[in-house]
Design a protein that fits this description.
Number of helices: 8
Distance between the termini: 52 Å
Largest sheet: 4 strands, mixed
CATH superfamily of the largest domain: N-terminal domain of the delta subunit of the F1F0-ATP synthase
Helix content: 55-70%
Shape: elongated
Strand content: 5-15%
CATH topology of the largest domain: Peroxidase, domain 1
Radius of gyration: 22 Å
Order of helices and strands: HHHHHHEHEEEH
Structural class: alpha+beta
Strand order of the largest sheet: 2-1-3-4
Length: 186
């Protein structure tokens, strides 16, 4: 089974249990905090996913971290399970899949918007309303990046869908059309 499929299964199980226990928000917060900790400490992330350390050693590290943090019991049990099943290396994918499920349950969608220049507040607000309308979600969380290679326009990614309104793509399309026509055709 692929790493992504495994991640989705673990994330789905955790989200379902968290919702049953009315702990979805605390678990989401805990996982975000744990992820941030691993991002700050690459050696810790590497050690938890490394077969060079025994399962007991990795479990002791997780237990020590959990004693210092005030994580929900479900989060702690989940992290221990990942260690026991040698799935800690899949944690980034599991966190991504859990985040998607969490957003679905909260009625929100995340969008990534790239533009050639920074977008002003009015443009972002209009874009947010449009994404809300198209997605049918109550809340839209937008992350913006500036990519001068777009030349102009914007590229918006919502889940698996990409809306490319960049000048760069329009120029590539025009070039392709022009090169695809035989000489003398208009």
């Amino acid at each position: 089974m692929s790493q992504i499929a495994v991640a989705r299964r673990y994330a789905a199980a955790l989200a379902e249990l968290a919702e049953e226990q009315r702990a979805l928000d605390p678990v989401a917060k805990d996982l975000a905090g744990f992820s941030a900790l691993l991002d700050r400490h690459a050696a810790l992330r590497s050690a938890l996913g490394s077969p060079a350390f025994t399962r007991d050693e990795r479990r002791n590290v997780v237990d020590a971290l959990l004693k210092r943090a005030s994580f929900h019991a479900l989060t702690g049990n989940f992290l221990r399970l990942l260690v026991d099943k040698n799935r800690m290396a899949a944690l980034p994918e599991i966190l991504e899949a859990f985040s998607q499920r969490y957003d679905e349950r909260r009625g929100r969608v995340r969008a990534e918007v790239s533009s050639a220049v920074p977008l002003d507040a009015a443009t972002l607000a209009a874009l947010q309303r449009q994404i809300q309308r198209v997605s049918g979600k109550n809340e839209v969380l937008i992350r913006t990046t500036v990519d001068p290679s777009l030349i102009g326009g914007i590229v918006t990614r919502v889940g698996d869908r990409v809306f490319d309104g960049s000048i760069r793509t329009q120029l590539r399309s025009l070039k392709s059309q022009l090169l695809g026509q035989a000489p003398g055709e208009a």
